[in-house]
# Entry
Amino acid sequence: MLQIAIDGPSGAGKSTVARALAAQLGCIYLDTGAMYRTVGLMARRAGLDTHDDAALAAMLRDADIQVRLTEEGQRMLLDGEDVEGLIRTPEVSMAASDVAVCPSVRRLLVAKQQEIAASNDVVMDGRDIGTHVLPDAQYKFFLTASPEVRAMRRFDELRDKGQAVAYDDVLEDVKRRDEQDTTRKESPLTRAADATEVSTDDLNADEVVQVIMALMGRF
# Structure
């Protein structure tokens, strides 16, 4: 099976690039961040402390979290409900970063991710794909961009969705999530030793895909 791991901080363009790369290669694109967002949404709905591993573990024992891979893309199902449109808010984003620290959450979702990758050619993006989820992936890339550029991308995305947000608040969220992701004890955000770093500051998604394809010898 072909496995391509794309890691990097929030807003570096991982999901957009991974989705486009998968389309070009005819692979499945697995958005692992959406899986953590779904758990974050569930925890918020239940009124749980998103740092409480024991409470989250108890919640997940009765949870039905499914990844539906369709021709139109990935859809997240929570107890049969399609929650794809509910997991992209700043609040759920922060909750996702919180629950991603918890070992019980990571064990469950990593097992699901590895199961999918074992039987499909995949492009997978996240925080620890190359270091933990798919350590033997044939290709590994680490996308980077400055906090300011990443915050502006997120700001534009939320504004396009009709959400009233302030750029300074989005920038603060980006910096706070970076701090959480890089300092957590459970699989922190870090570049795999054998991953190629690609800066996306001055490149659009199509250009990043072209760079990656060239690095893979496919372009």
The beta strands are 3-7, 28-31, 65-70, 73-78, 81-82, 122-126, 139-144, 196-199. The chain has one domain: 3-213.
